[in-house]
Design brief:
single chain; alpha/beta; Arc Repressor Mutant, subunit A; globular; binds iron/sulfur cluster
């Protein structure tokens, strides 16, 4: 799989050209809601990663090439199939990309490594950072995000707060319930999250629920509870916009060449499971047409089906 995918319509960032700067499935967390499959490789830092990270010049060259041929792009977004800040060349890559485009560059991160000076400085070089904070207390953090040992939510929240003084922050809170792991949407857990947000003072809070199937049985928080939490946060955090992230990105047409469609479908499915409609939105083409490509990819053994919550999702098979 390549370094660049999309542009795909993002629920938060418009048309987003995705950058995947880490070897597949490498992360510092093992979140109960993760959509990336059970083969995740959980590490403390880049020194534990045996695969090669894409170098800054490789990343910049892939972005430059993609911008020559792709349709409209609102953001160049570092995220992908693992924790992007594990890549030690992130700041350098941003600097190089700025040499050939003015398109804003965003970072989606689980926040864990922002406590490290070099990662903090790299994150501060972005135009926008979307750090996750799913818990305000250590117990909920350990149950929901399941970090490798050694991470402390107090330190991570402190680093996000410092970053919010340097660069716009949209704080992402994923709300889930699970029989096995409990919930981060109880009154007590939300009170703890609100205290952290008060200290961080982000430019915006995005309340999110999983919309695609994780490997483990995890339920999204129901819409009514989400609304209650949103209202409670707005009252407790005057001046901080609290946005409930819509379930689907707005559909926007794109000029994808026919021969690119199969590889785009595989690229998107390698990062996250999708329904036919998700893919149709993502690619800007008719769901019936997506169905034809999915049938061909299924016959070729490149993708497989998975049922979740009564809906049929497609996932890419490991190469
Ligand atoms: S931080 Fe993201 S990639 Fe890492 S385990 Fe959690 S959901 Fe998966």
């Amino acid at each position: 799989m390549g370094i660049v995918y999309g542009p795909v319509p993002s629920r938060r960032l418009g048309m987003s050209l995705g950058i995947d700067p880490v070897p597949r499935l490498v992360c510092t967390f093992d979140c109960v809601y993760c959509q990336l499959g059970k083969k995740r490789f959980v590490v403390h830092g880049p020194e534990e990663v045996t695969e090669q990270f894409p170098t800054p010049d490789k990343i910049a060259a892939a972005v430059e090439e993609a911008l020559k041929t792709r349709a409209h792009v609102d953001y160049i977004t570092f995220s992908g199939s693992g924790e992007p800040t594990l890549n030690p060349g992130l700041g350098e890559a941003v600097k190089m990309i700025r040499g050939f485009t003015d398109i804003p560059i965003a970072l989606i991160t689980n926040s864990s490594l922002l406590t490290l000076a070099e990662v903090f400085d790299a994150a501060a070089a972005f135009d926008l950072v979307l750090p996750s904070l799913d818990a305000g207390d250590q117990d909920t953090f350990l149950r929901i995000n399941r970090p490798v040992p050694g991470f402390e939510i107090e330190e991570i929240a402190g680093a996000i707060a410092r970053l919010a003084r340097r660069v716009p922050i949209w704080l992402e809170v994923m709300l889930v319930r699970s029989e096995e792991h409990g919930s981060n949407a109880t009154d007590a857990a939300i009170a703890a999250i609100i205290e952290k947000i008060r200290m961080i003072r982000p430019h915006e809070v995005n309340l999110n629920i999983p919309v695609r199937p994780p490997e483990e049985p995890v339920d999204p928080v129901p819409a009514g509870r989400l609304e209650e939490i949103s209202t409670r946060m707005e009252r407790a955090l005057p001046g901080v916009p609290v946005v409930v992230v819509p379930k689907r990105a707005p559909s926007r047409s794109k000029l994808l060449r026919e021969e690119e469609i199969s590889s785009e479908i595989l690229r998107v499915l390698a990062v996250r499971p999708c329904t036919t409609v998700d893919l149709a939105d993502s690619l800007g083409i008719d769901p019936a047409e997506v169905g034809k490509y999915l049938a061909r990819l299924g016959e070729a053994g490149r993708i497989e089906r998975r049922m979740q919550g009564g809906r049929l999702y497609y996932v890419a098979k490991e190469a």
